[in-house]
Each structure stands twice: as C-alpha cells, then as structure tokens.
Write a structure and sequence with these properties.
The chain is an alpha+beta fold. It folds into two domains: 4-140, Fructose-1,6-Bisphosphatase, subunit A, domain 1 (Fructose-1,6-Bisphosphatase, Chain A, domain 1); 149-259, 3-Layer(aba) Sandwich (D-Maltodextrin-Binding Protein, domain 2). The chain is 32% helix and 30% strand. The chain is built from eight helices and 14 strands. The strands form three sheets. A seven-stranded mixed sheet has the order 3-4-5-6-7-8-9, sandwiched between helices. The chain has a five-stranded mixed sheet with strand order 11-10-12-14-13, sandwiched between helices.
Length: 260
C-alpha cells in the first residue's frame, strides 16, 4: 500500500495548483458553458479538473479518477480511486462570493486514506490522512464540544433536484432543531468548518460523492462523525449526507432520517 502521506502530498499539490489557476483567472468568473437557475457549468471547472488529473496521472498513471466534470466517463480498474471536485461552490464563485474550494480525495478499496480541500480566496488548506490528524494550514483542528442542539449552528443547503420538496423540509427541520441554520453553498467547506469547530454540523438532502469525499475524512480525523443517510442511485453518486461534531450525531440522525 502506498504511504498515505505520499498520497496526501499529491492531493494537496493538485488542489493548490488548481485553486491557484482559478484565482489567476478571476476575471473569467462569467466564462460559462451554461448558466441556469439550478446551476452553473463553468469553463474553469473543466480546466482546473484537467490540471488535477494531469498531476495525479504523472504520479499514479494506473489509478482510477472520478471527477465531477467527467462522472460519466468509465473508470479504470484500480484499488486506488481519486475523487475530484475542481470547484465546489461554482455558483458562489460565479457571483464573486469566496466560499468555494478545490477538493481532492484518495480512496483505497472504498475507504478514504487522504484528502485535501483548498479554499484559495479564504487562504485555507485543509488536509488529513486516515492515520494522521486533521490540519488547517498545517495546524491541527478539532470539532466543537457542543452537545445541546439548541445552541448548535448548522449548515445546510437546497438540493437543486428537489426544490420545494424534501430540501425545504430538511432546512425547516434544521432551523427548528438548531440555534441557527446557515446556507453557504459549498458542501466541502461547510464540512471542513465543522471539522474546525466553527460549525457544529452540516446536512444536505442531496449532494454528490465528490462534494464530501475529502472533507468527510478531514472531519472524521478532527473527531467528528459522518453518515450517508441515503444513496439515491439516480442520479449516480447522489446522496443525502450528515456531518456533525459527533456529540450531536444521533440527535440529528433521528430528526432527519424520517424525512428521507
């Protein structure tokens, strides 16, 4: 097995390089292939994923790669699977809101072993390996100690596939249960801020595997707990996901699971 620190070095380098490329092209925020009420398909998404894939293939040409911008492409057979979200929070990026990131994870036989989430406009690099601490800019981080949901600040979001239905029932349940609900628009960053103890939890009724592949490992290594509450199957890789500081996990699982 490849040492996890070696895999993390490549993941972090790829995430940073992609983020730096996007920042160098901030003048192209409106350079899109498609923009609609539901989503934005940005040219920089495609270009930054290409950068990440080239870096991975230079080090590990035989590894499988699953990327948001190429999810329908067949993957090679490999014990190692790199899961890439070149710009998580594309709508935020499009509008000039700095809450976006580049996310790169490495899974070995279905389990996360290394992950990096780089938020260039916030100046933050989150990292973790399966056998090491969670870090933000090289400093260890840990989840909050919040036990009372009435004092919890919870991030959530609206699934574009179910606007007006399950999404808003979930948002309402979070608002009813926690002290404050926040809709920030980047799953990986929300989860990393739970890992950092700045949020107490995150839930969304519909995100994708690449949204949480790296951040979930970072959260777990920071002492938190993650659960895929439901795998929808269609669209492919579409899931309902809960992440908390651990102390709140059972409470929110019981509150949210019946909605699904």
């Amino acid at each position: 097995m490849i040492p996890s620190v070696q895999l993390l070095a490549v993941a972090s380098f790829a995430a940073r390089r992609a983020g730096q490329y996007v920042v160098a092209n901030l003048s192209r925020r409106d350079d899109v292939n498609k923009a609609s009420r539901e989503d934005v398909k940005h040219k920089l998404d495609v270009e930054s994923q290409r950068i990440i894939e080239e870096i991975i293939r230079t080090s590990y040409p035989d590894h499988a790669i699953l990327g948001e911008e190429s999810a329908d492409r067949p993957e090679v057979e490999s014990d190692y699977r790199w899961i890439v979200d070149p710009i998580d929070g594309t709508v935020n990026f499009f509008h000039g809101f700095p809450w976006w990131n580049c996310s790169v994870a490495v899974w070995y036989r279905g389990r996360a072993v290394a992950g990096a989430v780089f938020a260039p406009e916030l100046g933050k690099l989150y990292e973790a390996t399966a056998d090491g601490p969670a870090l933000c800019n090289g400093v260890p981080i840990h989840v909050s100690d919040t036990e009372n949901p009435e004092l919890a600040m919870f991030a959530t979001g609206a699934d574009k596939h179910d606007l007006g239905g399950l999404s808003f029932r979930g948002i309402r349940r979070i608002a009813e249960t926690s002290q404050r609900a926040r809709l920030l628009g980047s799953a990986a960053l929300d989860i990393c801020h739970v890992a950092e103890g700045r949020l107490d939890g995150y839930f969304e009724s519909g995100i994708y595997l690449w949204d949480m592949a790296a951040a979930s490992l970072i959260l777990e290594r920071a002492g938190g707990t993650c659960s895929i509450l439901k795998d929808y199957g269609t669209p492919k890789y579409h899931i309902a996901f809960l992440a908390t500081n651990g102390k709140l996990h059972d409470t929110y699982t019981q509150a949210l699971l019946p909605l699904l």
